[in-house]
Amino acid sequence: MFDDSFGATFQLTQIFIFVCFALVTIGVAFNWIKKMTALSSNQPRMSVPAKIVGKRAGMSGGNETFVSTNYYATFEVASEGRIEFHINENDYGQMAEGDHGMRTFQGTPFGNFERDFE
Asked: What Pfam families has UniProt attached to this entry (predicted)?
C-alpha cells in the first residue's frame, strides 16, 4: 500500500490531523446548539396578540440535488414590531395574511399561532 515509511507516516499524520479537526468542530457545534436550546427552554412561555402581515415560501436545491421548500410567516406584535419565523407546511397552509390571533412562544422559536375566528 505504501512505498516508503516516510510517505506512510506523512499520510497517517494528515489523516490524524483531519480527524482531530473534525472532532473539535463537531464538539463546538454541538455545544453551541445545546446552549441555544437551553436558553430558549429557560425562557417563560408567553402568549401575545399578533397579526400575520406576510407569508412566503422559498425553494432551495435543484439541479443534481433534491429540492426543499421552506415556509415563513411575518407577524406584527405590538411589543416586538415585525418578526419573521420559519414555520412548517401545515401552519403555512392554515394561515392567511391579515389573520389576527394569539402567538404563543418560548424563547426564539415560532411556537404556535391560534387564529381569532370573530
From this structure: DUF2500
Q: How crowded is residue 107: how many other Cβ atoms within 10 Å of its Cβ? A: 16
d(CA 26, CA 3): 34
Q: Tell me how far apart the alpha carbons of residues 105 and 85 are, in angstroms, rounded to a whole number.
A: 11
What is the percentage of the chain residues whose pLDDT exceeds 90? 31
Residue 25 pLDDT > 90: yes
21-46: string of b/e by CB count within 10 Å (b at 16+)? Answer: eeeeeeeeeeeeeeeeeeeeeeeeee
- The answer to whether 41 and 59 are in contact (CB under 8 A) is no
| CB of 51 closer than 8 Å to CB of 76 | yes
Q: Which pTM value belongs to this model? A: 0.60
